[in-house]
Amino acid sequence: MRRFLFLSFPFLLSMAEPIKDTRLRIELEDREGVRHSLRGLFCNGKDYLKVREGSVDYSITFGSISSIEVLGQDPSGLRIRVNSREGTTKEYFLSPNTYCRASSKLGEAGFYLKDVKTIFIKVEEKAR
To answer: What tens digit of pLDDT does each residue of 95-118 get?
Structure first.
């Protein structure tokens, strides 16, 4: 019995939901022009955005991003423009099936990035 519990422990941990950074305030505008105020953000279960530039994959943490603009979809994937907190702007590709979640006053919000126009990310000094 102890062996079963020991072997099932990693499986149970993998089912745990990632911890959201509640310092992140998200202002999102969807394709229909509706604005949403959210807190915390993770996409595909991660607290970073997995993007591709050329043949190289990058993992960009949400805390280092000031805004994301979804430009459209082409054969390479979903094309986005990322503005960093340092002031640099770059275009990347990512999976069109990237699913994100965040918290709102109404409850948990979920959306595909392909259904978004823009996301503005602010980092608060203290978590609420």
So the answer is: 999 999 999 999 999 999 999 999
Neighbours of 104 (CB within 10 A): 14
Query: Which tokens go with 69?
Result: 């603009």
27 has a pLDDT exceeding 60: yes
Q: Residue 50: which residues within 8 A CB-CB, separation 6 or more?
A: 43, 44, 57, 58, 59, 94, 95, 98
State both tokens at 126: 């203290």
Q: How far is CA 38 from CA 6, 9, 88, 91, 112, in A?
A: 38, 32, 24, 24, 15
Distance CA 95, CA 128 (A): 32
Among candidate residues 7, 35, 2, the one with its CA nearest the CA of residue 104? 35
Say how far apart CA 45 and CA 90 lie, in whole Å. Answer: 23
SS3 content of the chain, % helix, strand, coil (to 5): 15, 55, 30
